[in-house]
Every structure is written in structure tokens, then in C-alpha cells.
């Protein structure tokens, strides 16, 4: 390679590196500033802890990855064939230290990560109740084609595609589905997702610490209406919450068996609805519909006496 | 009667939408063109005898490449359609696709890319290279190999069959997760096409894998112990062992789903005791290892390239192998990380999180062995090496994202988001596909007899890298913004649209890269005299595949040498060439059409299963059995090349061999893009000119 061509290559390389770094800086700035960046703008303790864990893990990973990558690319460049200044040695010099080290270094880091990850997984397990002085609010969530039904058993009301929550109050969400494939309940500003499945009740604990409207959706594909299966999680003060309960109770119709049958009919981009009352035990009835009374699984003709 | 004859097939199944009509027409036109061309050139006998019925793994490898190449274009078109819809479909605009159609497209895209592109290219490389690398003449069972290939082809036809009959593919995602894939939610034939295209090609994969394990274990050149085996062969061995371990599981799972759909059983249904979670478990017990089945041979490709292009022996060879073995072993025990969010509880999740992190350890060791190999080497930045460097950059990002996803609380936020989609594309494209491209550029001279144009190869590489960054950095970002995967529409208030548009632009740049790869091949063919590899050893290679001519004779090596070290060919070159020995008669397997017939019957049977045509099912299955029996009773399976014939072929070939290997990169003779365009335009103008003149007459 001629001297001139080499300088040219250098300029090109440095230029690209600067460009990439500038792009990365821009990206980080966007992630930190953008109000739409749900995961970087947690509005509840759980989502907050999840973000912290991601950043700690990510940071630790970069500590190993960046030097490794720099080492790799600079080695490749330094020992290019046209570089007559660097030493070439066609023989592999075996070093026991290196042989052990290349296993030890990543192992150490992964062990460190595992030590962070194990307790964090237990702490942030969605089934684990959140400790607080306030009495937790229970909401029962049913994935219906293609809308979310929220039942407030203690308040005895229900809604479609609207989840009202009081701020700073632990929430216990019970999740199931009816006449729906697996769905995944997700409000990224508040907490990670959990599957909602027929015949199965999953529990997701979360808490909202900042008032506001947060988008929620199904993160698992579940048929043609999947993209439109959205809801709003609205977080307000506890006064807002009681006031909202009163309005719901005063408005509209109750959710009875007939109305529920209607909800089971597929509909897309459902605008939402409020129900002044909900039949007691509705959630359990939905669950029971899919339960095999004998408790065994996989038999062909089992449970035929349901009908 | 009609139902007896045609099952559920009726006039509705015929194409009546723009995409089914278009697809069918395109396929018919394409087929007509090819058939016409072959008939015109009177090449049918040649095609049948030399190619279709061939049992030569080199020819089968090339056929894999050709089919996989077309499927890459087909899957790429799907990708652009997906991104176009997503770039358009925000707020009041709903794009140009219905939700259902959109879901079919990404399902087909995923299946085609994994099964019919990545797997096929990997099988192509293994077919062509492994026997050469281990100094084998053919395979343990040449027949199983053609059968595997033709079953793959049957799968390819099956996955595209819905265009012509049925009009719908599965709209379930590439793994057809239950209960969405049950008849309750997917009553049409789409999922049945899905089941049978994977079933047929999956069985082909299992057969191929058994065959290659036997070949690698039993048919190595004398003296080549396992610890002297080239790393690509090692990667392939690990991969094939994983394949025989988990592909039967896929077969079984697909059968259970099929029983649910065809016989009305309740393994995975919502009602009557069905357990859909079981399906998720089973499919991922196969699905996670599957990604490493693709990855390990690619690791092997990179090891070969790094060593050759650094002009050094592979450093820490045994660590590299232990790394690959470690990856294979642990890959079997991490599947649950694909559904932390199903709610198995903290202990289970944390356990599988740890197992997943452990995989990152052997993977990093591989990277360290590559660095150690480059250290103090003389590195040539040929196109294969560029793909290696690109792979390292992209794959590391994907690997970091992977470890992040292995932390269950983080995964609760990232699962099923575009972050996850970006993770596995950085792995599968950056790892597997780049590995395939690197391998094709590296071994092309061996396969074709002339090397590929380096200059246009570099342009293609840079288009891929830039396009890839432009699509997948926004994709990671969208994941962090809370965008879930597989959305056919989203609200304008989400602020996602600019990123989707960037992804589309990136995708178009990638497509330009693909086009340039085609141009690269065409330009190389145009210049093939100048790019010809007369030595058989264009890169100063180290392993046995470079010890024979390019392209190699049917029997690979005329005299199989005694191997005393790894990098066997390099050692021989140091000592002045391959040891001379007397030529002996060589026994070679005869061509057979049995694989084609069996696959054709398998295709008929699965088609009949899709449409419930009982008599055709019987015909298909009986046909398969009869062909197998006929094949078993045929014991005229070999032919012999006499020592004199071998000598004649070898003399001819040695005449052409220039003994000194080429030094460095001499791509000044490669035509650039402008030159290519000029030639093509001149040629096209010439065509028009000729036509004008004939009009004038
Ligand atoms: C360091 C190595 C790797 C780690 C730690 C890792 C980790 C993970 C995890 C935890 C998931 C599940 C995420 C989720 O569903 O929420 C995942 C998904 C996936 N990974 Fe990886 N991975 C690695 C390497 C690879 C490789 C080499 C490939 C392909 C060649 C790959 C392809 C995929 C695919 C296809 C999916 C998900 C597909 C789907 O859900 O449809 N990964 N990976
Ligand atoms: Cu996995």
C-alpha cells in the first residue's frame, strides 16, 4: 500500500469512528430525553428496579465487551499484511496463562452477573406481593377477543380497555383469558409483562408512583385483532380513584352473563366501556370453564360431561 | 364423491387475491422460463443425469445453494413487505395489508429464513466442504443425502404451495404457538401447510445429520484423529449431533399438533384437558438448540477464515473446540428463557437465567481464540475476512442483548418487544448469514474454479453493514420505547413511525447489498478466465480441501494422504507437496433417483394431509414404502474408476496447476461497478440494435 493510500484509509477509518460515536451519543440523548421511551421512563417502582437492573447488567457487560472488541479490531489492523512495521510470527506461542485466562475472565463476569441476577429475580418475581402500608388493590384481568376486561372485585365494577389505578398503591393483577390464545399483559411504564392464558390464573404485582396515562397492550400475538388490543392505564390520586369508581357505578349498565356473552364475540379496536356492576365470581367462573374436573391432563374425551 | 376425490379442496382454494394471483403467476412464469430454456438447450438428460439424481455431495451442495439463494430473495421480499406496512401504518393510515395477511407474511418470512435459507446454506456448505476437509470420497450414505436434499425441496414447494391452492399461510408466528395454531383459532389450511413444510424438511434434516455424523466419525483420512480435524468440520459435527438430538422432538411436536388439528385430539387445545403451555415447552426445547445448530458451523467457517487469512495456525485450537462443545451442551438446557414471562416462578426462571449466561462463556472463548490467532499474523483483508470482522461487530451487540435477555426481570420488560427481535436478527444475520457469506466467498474458487470479484464483494459488504445498522439500531430503540413485535398498526402518538421508516430505508440498502452480491457473481462469471484458480489453492490454504483441483474431481482426492498434523495441507506444502503414491482404482456410488421419487410421494402425502384427501394419503405412503423397498433390493450401487482412468484425469488436472500460490490481494484486475454497468448497457443496446436492424429488413 502506498503512503498516500494508507493516510487516506486512516482518514476514512477515523471519520467512520467519529460518525458512529456521534450517532451513539445522539441515540443516548434521545433515549434519556424522549418522553415516548417507556422503558427509560419508568413510572412505578417495579419498572424502575427493572430498568436499574438492565443498566447495571448492561454496564457490566460493556466492561468486558468494549475492551475485547477494541483488542480484536486493533489486533486485526495492527497485523495487516501491508503493515511492515509490526512483528509477524507465523508460529503460535502457546501460553498456559492465556489458555486459562480466556476461560476465567468470562466465567468471573458471568458469575458476578449471576450473583446479581439471582436475588433480583426473586425480588422482582411478579407473583411476589409488594410490601406497603396501604391495602393492595386487586384487579382481575381477562383477555377477550380482542380487548381487555378489567374486573374490580372489591369495588364490584368492570371496564373494557381502561385500567384506573390509585397512585402509590400496590396492585395485584390476576390474569386469565377466555376464548383467546395466549396473550401477554404489558404496561411498560409500570412493570414487565406476564402471559394471560385460558384455564390458568397468573398474578402480576405492580405499583404506580407517578400519575399519568400509560399505554398497555398485548405483547403476544393472538389473532387478527392483536395490534388493536390496547388499553390505557390511568394513574391518579386515591381521591381520583374513588371519584372514578363512583362515576362508573352511576353510569351505564352492569356486566351480566348476557353482556359477557356479547364480549366474547370478536371485535377489533374496541373503544372501551364501563360497567356499573360486575357479577360476583365472574373471574373464577371464567377460569373454571377450562378446568378439568378430574385434574388430569391430555385425555381425549375427558370433560365431555361439561356440555 | 367430490369430497372423496378432492377432500376439502374446492374452487375457493384457487388464487383470487392480488398476492396469491401474483405469486402463482410469478412461480408459473419462472418455471415455464426454466423449462423452456432447458428444452431449448436440450439439457434435460444432462440435468437429470449430472445433477438431479447425483449423489455427489459437491453437486448436492451446489443445489442447496441455488435453492437457498432463491429462497433468500423470497424471504427478503417478505421482509421489505413487512417493513413497508409498518412504516406506513400509523395513526389513521392502516397501510396496504390486512392484519391477517401481514401476520402470514412475517410467519412465512421467519420459516423461510430459518428452514429454507439458513439451514439450507449450512447444509450446502457442509455437503461441499466436510468430505473434502476430512479426505473422504463420498458420504456414509450417499442415498440418505440425496433423500435429505429432496425432502428439503419438497418442503420448499410446500411452503410456497399456498399461493396456488388455499390462499393462506399460517398467521401464527414462526413457531405456531398453541393454542393460536389450533383449529379453534386457525381453522384454515395455513397452519397445515406450516406443519407439513416443516415436517418434511425437518425429517430431511434428521437424515442428513445422521449421515454427516457417521461420515465425520467413520470416514476421515488415515491419521486424522479428532484432534487433528479442521474446525469447520468440528463445528459441523457439533451442529449435526445437536440436530439428531432435537429434530425428532420437533417431528413429535408437529405430529401432536397435527393430531389436534386432523383428528380433533386435545393435546394443546384450550379445552378438554389440552395444555398449550406444553407446546411452548416442546417447541422451544427444539427451537433454542436450532439457533445453535445454525451457529456452530458458522463459527467453524470463521475459524478457518481467520486462520487462513492471518497465515497462521489456529491458536488455542482445543479451547476453540471445547468452546463449541460447551455451547452445544449448554444450548440443550436453556430453552425456558424463551418464556420466563409465562410465570414459572423465581427459582425456575433464575436457574434458566444462569444456564443461559453460562453459554456466553464458551462463546467468548471462541472470540479470544480468534484474537490470539490474528496476533502477529499477516492479515489479508479479503472479502471473507471483512465478513468476519462485520460478524464480530454485529454478533457482539446481539450477544450482549442476549445476556441482558437472560436476566429474567429484564426479560419481563424486553420479551416479545422489538428489542428481542433485534437481538435474534443480530445473531442470525450477523452470525449465521454473515458466516454463510464469508464461507461462500472463501470457498467459491474451490466450487466454481474461479474466485469471486473482490471489489464488488466489498461494496456488497458495506451496503449490508450500513443497511443493517440503519435497520437494527432503530429496532433496538423501538423495543426500549415499548414497541411490541408483529404489529400491523400503531398509534401516531407513540412516536414510533420515524424509526420504522429508518428500518425500511435500512432494509432497502440491504437489498442493494443483495443485488450487489448477485452482480458480484455475474461479474465474476464474465471475468472468469482472468479470475480462474488453476492452483486449487487460491488463498494459501491450510486444510485438505485446497489440496485438490478447483473444482475437485468427483472422487475429491486421487490419493488419500496419511495425515500427521492438523493444517494437514499446509504441512504438506512445507514439505514440498502432497506425497506421491500410485493411483488405485476408486469405487464411487452410482447416481440414484430414489430420493426424488420418495420425496415426491412424501410431498403428495403431506399435500393430502393438508386437504384431507384420504386416497392420496394412502398413495403417498405406499409410494414411499415401495420406493424404499425397491432401493433396498437394488445392490448395483457402485461403479469403479480404474487406476488408469484416475491417472488420466489427474494428469490432465496437474498440467494446469501453477505451483506457486498467489500472494496477497491482487484485485486490480477485478472489474468495478462502472465497468460492469458499461458492459451490461452496451450488451443491452446491442440487443436493441439487433432487433432494430431485423425490423429494418
Ligand atoms: C450469547 C449467546 C445468546 C444468549 C445469551 C441468548 C439469549 C436469548 C434469550 C434469553 C432469548 C429469549 C428472549 C425472549 O424471548 O424474551 C433469546 C431469543 C432468541 N435468540 Fe438468542 N441468545 C444467544 C445467542 C443466539 C444465537 C447464536 C442465535 C441464532 C443463531 C439466537 C437466536 C435467537 C432467537 C431466534 C430468539 C427468539 C425467537 C422468538 O422468540 O421468536 N440467539 N436469546
Ligand atoms: Cu434461546
Describe this structure in words.
The complex is a heterodimer of chains A (307) and B (697). Chain A is an alpha+beta fold. Chain A has 2 domains: 2-79 and 96-123, no CATH class; 137-305, Sandwich (Immunoglobulin-like). Chain A has helices spanning 3-33, 45-78, 96-123, 238-250, 257-263, 282-288, and strands at residues 137-144, 147-152, 157-160, 162-166, 170-177, 183-187, 191-196, 202-207, 212-218, 230-236, 273-275. Chain A has a 6-stranded mixed sheet with strand order 8-5-1-2-3-11. In chain A, helix 2 runs antiparallel to helix 3. Chain A is elongated and about 85 Å long. With 697 residues, chain B is mainly α. Helices cover 67% and strands 1% of the residues of chain B. Chain B has helices at 2-6, 18-40, 44-52, 57-88, 99-133, 142-160, 190-218, 231-263, 276-309, 317-331, 346-374, 383-405, 408-414, 418-448, 454-480, 497-526, 528-531, 568-574, 594-611, 614-633, 643-656, 673-696, and strands spanning 586-589, 638-641. A two-stranded antiparallel ribbon of chain B has the order 1-2. The longest helix of chain B is centred in the N-terminal third of the chain and has 35 residues, at 99-133. Chain B starts with a helix and ends with a helix. At the A-B interface, helix 1, helix 2, helix 3, strand 7 and strand 9 of A face helix 5, helix 9, helix 11, helix 12 and helix 13 of B. Protoporphyrin IX containing FE (HEM) binds at residues 291, 294-295, 337-338, 356, 359-360, 363, 399, 402-403, 405-406, 411, 414-415, 420, 423-424, 427-428, 431-432 of chain B.
> What strand line-up does the widest sheet of chain B have?
1-2
How confident overall, as mean pLDDT of chain A? 90
The helix fraction of chain B, in percent, is: 55-70%
The total strand number of chain B stands at: 2
What number of structural domains do the residues of chain A give?
Answer: 2
Strand content of the residues of chain A, in percent? 15-25%
Order of helices and strands of chain B: HHHHHHHHHHHHHHHHHHEHHEHH
CATH fold assignment of the largest domain in chain A: Immunoglobulin-like
Please report the number of helical segments of chain A: 6
CATH level 4 superfamily of the largest domain in chain A: Cupredoxins -  blue copper proteins
Order of helices and strands of chain A: HHHEEEEEEEEEEHHEH
CATH architecture of the largest domain in chain A: Sandwich
Ends of chain A: how far apart? 82 Å
Looking at the chains present, what oligomeric state does this protein adopt?
heterodimer
Helix content of chain A: 25-40%
Q: Overall 3D geometry of chain B?
A: globular
Amino acid at each position: 500500500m502506498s503512503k498516500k493510500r494508507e493516510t487516506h484509509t486512516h482518514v476514512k477509518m477515523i471519520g467512520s469512528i467519529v460518525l458512529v460515536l456521534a450517532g451513539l451519543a445522539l441515540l443516548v440523548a434521545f433515549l434519556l430525553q424522549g418522553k415516548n421511551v417507556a422503558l427509560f421512563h419508568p413510572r412505578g417502582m417495579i419498572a424502575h428496579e427493572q430498568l436499574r437492573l438492565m443498566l447495571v447488567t448492561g454496564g457490566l457487560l460493556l466492561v468486558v465487551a468494549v475492551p475485547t472488541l477494541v483488542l480484536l479490531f486493533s489486533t486485526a489492523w495492527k497485523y495487516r499484511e501491508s503493515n511492515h512495521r509490526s512483528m509477524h510470527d507465523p508460529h503460535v506461542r502457546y501460553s498456559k496463562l492465556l489458555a486459562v485466562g480466556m476461560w476465567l475472565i468470562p466465567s468471573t463476569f458471568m458469575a458476578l452477573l449471576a450473583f446479581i441476577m439471582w436475588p433480583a429475580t426473586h425480588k422482582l418475581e411478579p407473583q411476589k406481593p409488594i410490601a406497603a402500608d396501604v391495602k393492595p388493590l386487586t384487579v382481575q384481568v381477562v383477555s377477550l377477543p380482542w380487548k381487555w376486561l378489567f374486573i374490580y372485585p372489591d369495588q364490584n365494577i368492570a371496564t373494557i380497555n381502561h385500567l384506573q389505578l390509585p397512585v402509590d398503591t400496590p396492585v395485584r393483577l390476576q390474569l386469565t383469558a377466555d376464548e383467546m390464545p395466549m396473550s401477554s399483559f404489558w404496561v411498560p411504564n409500570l412493570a414487565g409483562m406476564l402471559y394471560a392464558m385460558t384455564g390458568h390464573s397468573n398474578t402480576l404485582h405492580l405499583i404506580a408512583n407517578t400519575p399519568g396515562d400509560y399505554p398497555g397492550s398485548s405483547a403476544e400475538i393472538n389473532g387478527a385483532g392483536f395490534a388493536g388490543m390496547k388499553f390505557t392505564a390511568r394513574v391518579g390520586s386515591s381521591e381520583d380513584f374513588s371519584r372514578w369508581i363512583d362515576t362508573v357505578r352511576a353510569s351505564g349498565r352492569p356486566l351480566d352473563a348476557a353482556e359477557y356473552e356479547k364480549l366474547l364475540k370478536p371485535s377489533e379496536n374496541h373503544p372501551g366501556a364501563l360497567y356499573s356492576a360486575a357479577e360476583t365470581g365472574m373471574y373464577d367462573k371464567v377460569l373454571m370453564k377450562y378446568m378439568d374436573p378430574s385434574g388430569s391432563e391430555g385425555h381425549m374425551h375427558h370433560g365431555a360431561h361439561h356440555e | 364423491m367430490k369430497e372423496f376425490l378432492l377432500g376439502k379442496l374446492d374452487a375457493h382454494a384457487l388464487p383470487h387475491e392480488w398476492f396469491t394471483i401474483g405469486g402463482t403467476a410469478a412461480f408459473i412464469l419462472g418455471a415455464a422460463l426454466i423449462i423452456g430454456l432447458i428444452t431449448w438447450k436440450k439439457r434435460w438428460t444432462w440435468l437429470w443425469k449430472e445433477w438431479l439424481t447425483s449423489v455427489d455431495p459437491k453437486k448436492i451442495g451446489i443445489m442447496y445453494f441455488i435453492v437457498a439463494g432463491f429462497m433468500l430473495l423470497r424471504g427478503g421480499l417478505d421482509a421489505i413487505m413487512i417493513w413497508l406496512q409498518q412504516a406506513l401504518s400509523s395513526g389513521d393510515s392502516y397501510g396496504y395489508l390486512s392484519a391477517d395477511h401481514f401476520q402470514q407474511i412475517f410467519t412465512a418470512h421467519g420459516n423461510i429464513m430459518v428452514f429454507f435459507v439458513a439451514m439450507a446454506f449450512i447444509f450446502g456448505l457442509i455437503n461441499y466442504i466436510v468430505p473434502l476437509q476430512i479426505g473422504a470420497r463420498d458420504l456414509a450414505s450417499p442415498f440418505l443425502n440425496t433423500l435429505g436434499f429432496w425432502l428439503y425441496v419438497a418442503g420448499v414447494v410446500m411452503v410456497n404451495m399456498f399461493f396456488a391452492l388455499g390462499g393462506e399461510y399460517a398467521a401464527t408466528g414462526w413457531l405456531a404457538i398453541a393454542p393460536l395454531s389450533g383449529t379453534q383459532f386457525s381453522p384454515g389450511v395455513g397452519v397445515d401447510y406450516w406443519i407439513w413444510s416443516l415436517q418434511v424438511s425437518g425429517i430431511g434434516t434428521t437424515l442428513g445429520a445422521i449421515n454427516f455424523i457417521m461420515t465425520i466419525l467413520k470416514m476421515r483420512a488415515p491419521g486424522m484423529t479428532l484432534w487433528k480435524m479442521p474446525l469447520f468440520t468440528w463445528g459441523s459435527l457439533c451442529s449435526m449431533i445437536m440436530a439428531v438430538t432435537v429434530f425428532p422432538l420437533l417431528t413429535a411436536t408437529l405430529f401432536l399438533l397435527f393430531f389436534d388439528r386432523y383428528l380433533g385430539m386435545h393435546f394443546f387445545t384450550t379445552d378438554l384437558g389440552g395444555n398449550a403451555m406444553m407446546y411452548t415447552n416442546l417447541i422451544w426445547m427444539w427451537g433454542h438448540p436450532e439457533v445453535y445448530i445454525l451457529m456452530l458451523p458458522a463459527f467453524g467457517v470463521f475459524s478457518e477464515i481467520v486462520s487462513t487469512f492471518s497465515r497462521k495456525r489456529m491458536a488455542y485450537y482445543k479451547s476453540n473446540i471445547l468452546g463449541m462443545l460447551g455451547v452445544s451442551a449448554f444450548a440443550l438446557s436453556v430453552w425456558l428463557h424463551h418464556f420466563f414471562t409465562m410465570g414459572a416462578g423465581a427459582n425456575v426462571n433464575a436457574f434458566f437465567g444462569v444456564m443461559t449466561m453460562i453459554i456466553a462463556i464458551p462463546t467468548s472463548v471462541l472470540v479470544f481464540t480468534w484474537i490470539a490467532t490474528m496476533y502477529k499474523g499477516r492479515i489479508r483483508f479479503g472479502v471473507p475476512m471483512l465478513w468476519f470482522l462485520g460478524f464480530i461487530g454485529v454478533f457482539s451487540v446481539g450477544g450482549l442483548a442476549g445476556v441482558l435477555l437472560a436476566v429474567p426481570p429484564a426479560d419481563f420488560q424486553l420479551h416479545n418487544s422489538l428489542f428481542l427481535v433485534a437481538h435474534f436478527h443480530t445473531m442470525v444475520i450477523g452470525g449465521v448469514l454473515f458466516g454463510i457469506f464469508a464461507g461462500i466467498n472463501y470457498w467459491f474458487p474451490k466450487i466454481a474454479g474461479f474466485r469471486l470479484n473482490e471489489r464488488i464483494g466489498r461494496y456488497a459488504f458495506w451496503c449490508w453493514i450500513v443497511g443493517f445498522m440503519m435497520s437494527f439500531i432503530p429496532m433496538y430503540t423501538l423495543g426500549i420505547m415499548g414497541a411490541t413485535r408483529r404489529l400491523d398498526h400503531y398509534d401516531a402518538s407513540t412516536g414510533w413511525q420515524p424509526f420504522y421508516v429508518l428500518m425500511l430505508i435500512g432494509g432497502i440498502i440491504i437489498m442493494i447489498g443483495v443485488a450487489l452480491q448477485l452482480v458480484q457473481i455475474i461479474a465474476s462469471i464474465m471475468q472468469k478466465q482472468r479470475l480462474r484458480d488453476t492452483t486449487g489453492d487460491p488463498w494459501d490454504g491450510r486444510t485438505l480441501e485446497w489440496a485438490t483441483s478447483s473444482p475437485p474431481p468427483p472422487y475429491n482426492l486421487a490419493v488419500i494422504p496419511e495425515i500427521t498434523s492438523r493444517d494437514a495441507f499446509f504441512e504438506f506444502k512445507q514439505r514440498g507437496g502432497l506425497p506421491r503414491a500410485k493411483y488405485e482404482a476408486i469405487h464411487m456410488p452410482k447416481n440414484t433417483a430414489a430420493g426424488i421419487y420418495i420425496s415426491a410421494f412424501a410431498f403428495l402425502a403431506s399435500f393430502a394431509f393438508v386437504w384431507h384427501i384420504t386416497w392420496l394419503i394412502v398413495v403417498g405412503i405406499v409410494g414411499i414404502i415401495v420406493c424404499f423397498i425397491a432401493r433396498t433390493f437394488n445392490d448395483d450401487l457402485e461403479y469403479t474408476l480404474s487406476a488408469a482412468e484416475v491417472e488420466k484425469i489427474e494428469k490432465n488436472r496437474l498440467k494446469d496447476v501453477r505451483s506457486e500460490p498467489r500472494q496477497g490481494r491482487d484485485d486490480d484486475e477485478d472489474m468495478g461497478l462502472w465497468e460492469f454497468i458499461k458492459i451490461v448497457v452496451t450488451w443491452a443496446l446491442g440487443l436493441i440494435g439487433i432487433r432494430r436492424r431485423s425490423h429494418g429488413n
